[in-house]
Amino acid sequence: MSRIATTSLPFITFVMHEELKDTMSTQNNPPVVQGKAAGNAAVPALNKRRQSASAKERRTAAAVSPDPVSLDDDVYARIKQMILTGQFAPGRKLAHQHIADLLAVSRTPVRQALERLYQEGYVIRIPARGYFVAEIDSHEARDLYDVRAALESYALGLTMARAVIGEKQLKRSAELHEIYAKHVAKNAIVDRISSDRDFHVYLASLSGNEYLVDILNAVFERIIMKRRIDGYWSSEKRGAAGLREHQLLLRAIRAGDASNAKRILESHLREAWVQYEAHLLQLAVP
Q1: DSSP helix/strand/coil, 133
Q2: Which of 17, 100, 219, 259 has its CA 20 to 30 A from that of 42?
Q3: Nearest by Cα to 152 from 206, 94, 96
């Protein structure tokens, strides 16, 4: 057996051999301990070895663990946030050097970020003129609401068909609903819109389709940006109605009533668009 171990597992055999030598050496030459002072004297050396090992582990981890956020991604996220929050208004020209100075970076990550935002539709590119923040007209707003309704309805259908909603998911849905309810009660409009998005995106995520959730998040970003630009935050009355509709939706989901849950969701989203469309029509009146 010793020969087989030596042939197949040389490293293990070597370690076992060394440990055996250490053990025999200790037995033949027991350490001389002279009271507490001898024990204390051994501690610094042990701590030094441990610190050295820890430092080596940290260096190894740093070598194999990539930076979670690259400079390109960071610049992209910051410019996008400026667009979404209205700091860069629709139609504004996005000059490379100005943004680079603003973010304290070179022009290269700014150029890459603007190209990425162009591909996603947040900015437009005009030859010989540069990049500009894209505008969302009423037709695109309607398209966004249509896409949102289609995505959420499909996701709910998948979720109900797969029967993946258990007590844990129901509890989390109820928690998000309660957060929304608190914002409605306080008439905290901005927070209410964010918590409404969180509620709907979480329900969609239960479908298990990550691509669908990514698209839905992007749609929500553009809808919220459009509403901010138009100054539309919906009424307190609509917030209370949305709260009741959320309650009905969760009740149908808990009961496992797929057809009723889908009907409630689609009605809820349709009413949200009707209210926003009325606001857009008012803006169109000279």
Answers
A1: strand
A2: 17
A3: 206
DSSP β-ladder status, 130-133 and 93-94: antiparallel
Co-location of 117 and 36 in the same domain: no
Q: What is the pTM of this model?
A: 0.67
Identify the residue whose tokens are 């990514």: 214
273 and 187 share one domain: yes
For residue 132, report the phi and psi dihedrals to the nearest 5 degrees: -135, 150
Both 156 and 270 in one domain: the answer is yes
Where in the chain does DSSP place strands (E)?
A: 93-94, 123-126, 130-133
Task: Lowest mean pLDDT of 165-169, 194-198, 225-229, name the range.
Answer: 225-229
Distance (Å, rounded) from C-alpha 262 to C-alpha 146? 15
120 and 81 fall within a common domain = yes
Q: Are residues 128 and 235 in the same domain?
A: no
Cα–Cα dist 24/154, whole Å: 71
Instruction: Domain of residue 205: give its range.
Output: 138-284
Q: Give the distance, in angstroms, between the CA of residue 267 and the centroid of all CA atoms in the same chain.
A: 28
Supply 104's token pair: 């304290």
On whether both 209 and 259 belong to a single domain, the answer is: yes
From CA 249, how far away is CA 259, in angstroms rounded? 11
CATH of the domain at 147: 1.20.120.530
Chain-centroid distance of CA 125 in Å reads 28
pLDDT interval class at 10 (50, 70, 90):
very low
Kindly state whether residues 58 and 81 are assigned to the same domain: no
Are 272 and 192 contacting, i.e. CB atoms less than 8 angstroms apart?
Answer: no
